[in-house]
């Protein structure tokens, strides 16, 4: 399993818990690299702040940590830098810039400067556009995702945010209840059915 294959699987909409062991291991390896970064390498400070804000809106803090607490923006920057090719990276950055164009048009300010209510309104609009685009694509073609149109910004951001979250320790253990090391192994335990049969004799 290589990075290109992992990205292809994620682009098809595969849910992180259902990914193969190889893909999961590769993403976990990328996650470990997040803590070693001193500063974003692809995103500038404004872009980083925008991604952080939007990721937190997608997965806000509740009784479990939110996207910003698990370093989603850092993880996204790492994947953009080390995994994505130039075309996909440019598509993401162009879409990110268009978010500010949209908020400037509607509210007269950038996404990070909007109120939480205004930010949520923009996110709902982006979500509606994403659903409409997916519906139109499904109606127009039955081709697989590899030969379909390239993924646009907001679906990329959502998928990367979810991937960042569920490959983090809190996301994997508190949300997915994923056991990195199983609690115990009873190699000599009797099967329950055999034990019950013996008890009846």
Structural class: mainly alpha
Identify the overall geometry: globular
Main beta-sheet annotation: none
Q: Which percent band covers the strand fraction?
A: under 5%
Helix content: 55-70%
Number of helices: 9
User: Unreliable stretches, pLDDT < 50, 5 or more residues?
Assistant: 1-7, 9-15, 181-185
> SSE string, helix = H, strand = E?
HHHHHHHHH
Gyration radius over CA = 21 Å
Compute the separation of the termini in Å. Answer: 52 Å
- Domains, number: 1
pLDDT average, as an integer?
Answer: 76
What is the number of E strands?
A: 0
Description of the molecule:
Helix content is 62%, strand content 0%. It has helices at 3-11, 21-34, 45-58, 72-82, 86-107, 116-140, 153-166, 169-175, 192-200. It is globular. The N and C termini lie far apart (52 Å).
Question: What keywords describe this structure?
Answer:
mainly alpha, disordered N terminus, 62% helix, 201 residues, single chain, 9 helices, globular
Quick structural gist:
By secondary structure, the chain is mainly alpha-helical. The protein has one domain. It contains nine helices and no strands.
Helices and strands in order:
Elements: H1 3-11, H2 21-34, H3 45-58, H4 72-82, H5 86-107, H6 116-140, H7 153-166, H8 169-175, H9 192-200
Helix pairs in contact: 2-4, 3-4, 4-7, 5-7
